DNA sequence: GGGCGGTTATA
DNA sequence: GTATAACCGCCCG
């Protein structure tokens, strides 16, 4: 007998079953336009997996149609209690259908019957033509279809749970042909199939295993009591009573295999996917990973759709430059970008500049490419001199990507970039701070579906990376001109989106845009530090660290690396057998600070480790590093403030981070002593007092909190008095400490659990504190509830000035994620409003200092604090003016209080 | 050399 | 319980 080549199995997918399951299993994801995407992602990734698992097989996807089916005709109550499809799922159905079609998977929606019936019919027909079928479903009812040629697979389960005849027997305890009878007896709550009352899974199985089929059960009712299951004595009566219902249920539960279909299994064929359509959908839904996957190496989205229509010019002659200068002068808006030798704005040398005046029309002016065989280029100084009037003109509007960098670099060439009308990084950030990173490559992919040339593509990466002046001009031109072109295109995509939300336009134009230059100046001002002082501290720290290490080795009885949490854990918990208090997410015993703190009460080694850790941190991060960060030209350290990083609107600082310089310990404060004023100058440190709590008072309008602040009370003391029911001047230190923790907890959206941990009390007493607090400050409770609700309703929260933070997870069915989003919803308006306020203050202070020509500069910002360096003679005037402007930066229903200190160093100024 | 976990500095 | 950046060790390629 010649064995015929086995055909690959036909795959039939129960689309509707996966639709619902994906909807409920996935987090509440959404695209930035609000389109929900969780179910789409879930269903489509399931399809992708099937294609991967069965590359040879034709795959058909079947969905339920809208409207009644024949089952409603025979039983009007069928599926009558199903709630209507949630809107968020309904909005995802069309995209799912469209994407499945674009993937090249034949899709069927047949009215009057259910997906199950279509699948049953197709599977039977396939069997008849000698083709085996695999049905992909999450619905156990389908088990009735299983036979020698038909198996089930649950693609959503890990490891793809296959179920053949044996599998059905193992899982249900009965063969496939009895599944219908099983369902008929048991009924189905969800589909509203009645079944026989009093018969559940166990009874139905006992009946069928004992007597065969439903019909046979009814023929042999007198044998039922002998089966001996619970309630078997009264069962015949019940069965008899509900016989009609049982038979109806069987009819309802039976999947039809004889639906009249216009197509058959032969119509399910592999079709080439429609890449363009898929790209469109993935772009719209922001499925970035899948977009990248669709593209073969080196291919861009534009290769698949239409390539960008571009004319990029490389400017090597004076005539070309003159021509472009003229066109730039006439342009209402142009995009501008500099190419340099370094990311460090204080060291970067300009290598070239690029412009775009309209979509696709861009130019690159190479100025300092420096490699063997590089062509002669226009003189950098001359070109910059020619461009200077354009760049310095307020009326000549520019758009760029992170123009703070370009502004700082140009300042090194004594060019003051003005006329900054837009910055695409900030447009994206204001639009949705968390939707994406705000670098140009990410934005181009997200908003234009364009995969840009990455810097690493032309310069390499890691140790082998070359600087931009080493890059061949041909490649550099393509890269640089594209940057300008894409910047312009991004702006054209982002501006209309921003314009839809007038409050966001205000945040962009009145806060973020004017802040660019303020930050650029602060960064370039830099902070003066005394490296000798830090180096001296480093030596002292090294000595103490060395001593601690020796003592630790003695206690441990062996030498080990104190900096290795792994080795330390080994010593503490295995060798010395100290109790494990907490585990890290990866399961090893935690040696984090609070854990060691607790162990230190009973054992000597943890205390040593704590001191070792804190001193090593100070040494490696601050006393060793800061002197290395001093710029040799200016003798100062120049941080970078990032304007588009945090979710809430705060700035962040890096290289070095000047927003986490120690202050809590005496050792740490010595580091602040190394932040000094130049001779003849002083440092002023001015910080907002309790700004976030004041914002909470304002936003919540809580009477008690408002009056506490209005009367100038110590708010933690006032809270303690209320919560502990004592007169305000009898509040103990410990009560005040607790109240302070409660106040902080409120700002963080605390739970009783978290507060308990913080205070070291039981969860129950923490809850009592919280209850008492809300009793005394009911406005705060109302506010917290309101913000949770409005966050859930809108999907975002807002600061006082209209900045938005999107919180897609606020509707997550995963309670952990939902709760986390709720905490963010509570915290973000306070943290974000505080950020808005200090940003407004910085602009006001900057304007004042510039106009008054005072000998004073802002040099640092630490979230609620501004540090200025001021000529000694002007200190009093600047302190007064600074406080005035910081206080006036917002008009709240409670006073804003600013405390300012003056000193020769940062520690003294506090 | 790159990425990640664990830890710790700040508001 | 919120928001960050940066260090070290460790493991991988």
Automatic annotation (TrEMBL):
Protein name, entry field: DNA polymerase I
Record domain 3'-5' exonuclease: where: 312-499
Stretches assigned to the DNA-directed DNA polymerase family A palm domain: 668-874
Function: In addition to polymerase activity, this DNA polymerase exhibits 3'-5' and 5'-3' exonuclease activity.
Record's catalysed reaction(s): DNA(n) + a 2'-deoxyribonucleoside 5'-triphosphate = DNA(n+1) + diphosphate
UniProt keyword annotation of Nucleotidyltransferase present: yes
Enzyme class: transferase
Pfam families xrefs: 5_3_exonuc (PF01367), 5_3_exonuc_N (PF02739), DNA_pol_A (PF00476), DNA_pol_A_exo1 (PF01612)
Keywords annotated in UniProt: DNA damage, DNA repair, DNA replication, DNA-binding, DNA-directed DNA polymerase, Exonuclease, Hydrolase, Nuclease, Nucleotidyltransferase, Transferase
């Amino acid at each position: 007998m010649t064995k015929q080549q086995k055909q690959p199995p036909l795959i039939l997918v129960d689309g509707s079953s996966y639709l619902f399951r994906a909807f409920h299993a996935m987090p509440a994801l959404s695209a930035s336009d609000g389109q929900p995407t969780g179910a789409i992602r879930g269903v489509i990734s399931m399809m992708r997996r099937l294609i991967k698992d069965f590359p040879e097989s034709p795959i058909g996807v079947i969905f339920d149609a809208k409207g009644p089916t024949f089952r409603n005709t025979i039983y009007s109550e069928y599926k009558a209690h199903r709630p209507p499809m949630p809107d968020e799922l309904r909005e995802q159905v069309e995209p799912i259908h469209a994407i499945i079609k674009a993937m090249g998977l034949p899709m069927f929606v047949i009215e009057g019957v259910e997906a199950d019936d279509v699948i049953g019919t197709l599977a039977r027909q396939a069997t008849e033509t000698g083709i085996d079928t695999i049905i992909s479903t999450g619905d156990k009812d389908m088990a009735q279809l299983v036979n020698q040629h038909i198996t089930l697979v649950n693609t959503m389960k890990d490891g793809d749970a296959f179920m053949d005849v044996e599998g059905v027997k193992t899982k249900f305890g009965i063969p496939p042909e009895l599944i219908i009878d099983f369902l008929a007896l048991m009924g189905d709550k969800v589909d509203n199939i009645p079944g026989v009352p009093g018969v559940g899974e166990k009874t139905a199985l006992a009946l069928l295993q004992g007597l065969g089929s439903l019909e046979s059960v009814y023929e042999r009712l007198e044998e039922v009591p002998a089966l001996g299951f619970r309630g078997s004595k009264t069962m015949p009566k019940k069965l008899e009573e509900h016989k009609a219902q049982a038979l109806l249920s069987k009819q309802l539960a039976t999947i039809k295999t004889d639906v009249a279909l216009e197509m058959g299994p032969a119509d399910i064929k592999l079709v080439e996917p429609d890449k363009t359509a898929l790209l469109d959908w993935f772009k719209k839904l922001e499925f970035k990973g899948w977009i990248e996957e669709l593209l073969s190496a080196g291919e861009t989205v534009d290769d698949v759709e239409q390539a960008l229509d571009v004319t990029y010019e490389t400017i090597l002659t004076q005539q070309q430059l003159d021509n472009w200068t003229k066109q730039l002068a006439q342009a209402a808006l142009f995009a501008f970008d500099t190419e340099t030798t370094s990311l460090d704005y204080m060291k970067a040398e300009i290598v070239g500049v690029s412009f775009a005046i309209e979509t696709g029309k861009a130019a690159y002016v190479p100025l300092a490419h420096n490699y063997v065989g590089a062509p002669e280029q226009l003189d950098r100084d001359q070109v910059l001199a020619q461009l200077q009037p354009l760049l310095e003109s307020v009326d000549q509007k520019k758009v760029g990507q992170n123009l703070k960098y370009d502004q700082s670099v140009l300042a090194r060439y004594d060019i003051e970039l003005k006329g900054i009308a837009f910055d695409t990084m900030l447009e994206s950030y204001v639009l949705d701070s968390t939707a994406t990173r705000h670098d140009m490559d990410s934005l181009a992919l997200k908003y234009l579906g364009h995969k840009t040339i990455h810097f690493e593509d032309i310069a390499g990466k890691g140790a082998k990376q070359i600087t931009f002046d080493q890059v061949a001009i041909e490649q550099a031109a393509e890269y640089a001109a594209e940057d300008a072109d894409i910047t312009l295109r991004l702006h054209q995509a982002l501006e209309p989106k921003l314009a839809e939300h007038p409050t966001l336009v205000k945040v962009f134009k009145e806060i973020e845009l004017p802040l660019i230059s303020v930050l650029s100046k602060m960064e370039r001002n830099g902070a003066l530090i005394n490296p000798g002082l830090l180096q001296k501290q480093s030596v002292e720290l090294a000595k103490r660290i060395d001593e601690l290490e020796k003592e630790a080795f003695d206690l441990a009885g062996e030498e080990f690396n104190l900096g290795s949490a792994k080795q330390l854990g080994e010593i503490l918990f295995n060798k010395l057998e100290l109790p494990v208090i907490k585990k890290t997410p990866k399961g090893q015993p935690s040696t984090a600070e609070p854990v060691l703190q607790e162990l230190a009460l009973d054992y000597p080694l943890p205390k040593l480790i704590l001191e070792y850790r804190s001193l090593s941190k100070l040494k490696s991060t601050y006393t060793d590093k800061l002197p290395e960060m001093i710029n040799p030209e200016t003798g100062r350290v120049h941080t970078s403030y990032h304007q588009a990083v945090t979710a809430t609107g705060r700035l962040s600082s890096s290289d070095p981070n000047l927003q986490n310089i120690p202050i809590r310990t005496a050792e740490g404060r010595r580091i602040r002593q190394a932040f000094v004023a130049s001779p003849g100058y002083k440092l002023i440190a001015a910080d907002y007092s309790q700004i976030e709590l004041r914002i909470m008072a304002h936003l919540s309008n809580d009477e008690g909190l408002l009056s506490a602040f209005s009367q100038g009370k110590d708010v933690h003391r006032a809270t303690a008095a209320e919560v502990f029911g004592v007169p305000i001047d009898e509040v103990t230190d410990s009560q005040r400490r607790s109240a302070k923790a409660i106040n902080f907890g409120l700002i963080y959206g605390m739970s009783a659990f978290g507060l308990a941990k913080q205070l070291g009390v039981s969860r129950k007493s923490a809850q009592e504190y919280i209850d008492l607090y809300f009793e005394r400050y009911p406005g705060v409770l109302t506010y917290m509830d309101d913000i949770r609700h409005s966050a859930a309703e809108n999907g975002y929260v807002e600061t006082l000035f209209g900045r938005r933070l999107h919180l897609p997870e606020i509707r997550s069915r995963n309670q952990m994620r939902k709760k986390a989003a709720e905490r963010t919803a509570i915290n973000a308006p306070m943290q974000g409003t505080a950020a808005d306020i200090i940003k407004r203050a910085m602009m006001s202070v900057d304007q004042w200092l510039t106009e008054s020509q005072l000998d004073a500069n802002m040099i640092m910002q630490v979230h609620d604090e501004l540090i200025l360096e001021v000529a000694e003679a002007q200190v009093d005037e600047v302190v007064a003016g600074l406080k005035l402007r910081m206080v006036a930066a917002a008009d709240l229903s409670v006073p804003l209080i600013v405390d300012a200190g003056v000193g020769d160093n940062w520690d003294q100024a506090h």
